[in-house]
Write a structure and sequence with these properties.
0% strand
Length: 86
């Protein structure tokens, strides 16, 4: 148990940030699964829209510090490569 009041507050803050970060990361993973499902069903136009939305979500996650910028960049590059060029 923390001895000081500020330490208690820091624990509350870190717990709140932890759950927020988990929510964002889970949302990104769910969107990626949907994107892969659209590619499997050959619905490329919908997959392209979802990729644009996913890129935005990953950029926001980087801005908030949830994931590292290189990780986001790598995910975007690999997912973009899966989409066939028209």
């Amino acid at each position: 148990m923390p001895q000081k009041r500020s330490a208690c507050k820091e624990i509350r803050k870190s717990k709140k940030k932890h759950f927020s970060n988990i929510r964002v990361a889970t949302e990104v993973k769910t969107i990626i699964k949907g994107y892969n499902a659209f590619l499997a069903e050959k619905k490329f136009d919908r997959a392209k829209e979802l990729l644009r939305f996913l890129t935005s979500k990953l950029s926001k996650a980087v801005k908030k510090g949830v994931i590292h910028r290189n990780t986001a960049s790598r995910k975007i590059a690999r997912l973009s490569k899966k989409l066939p060029r028209a």
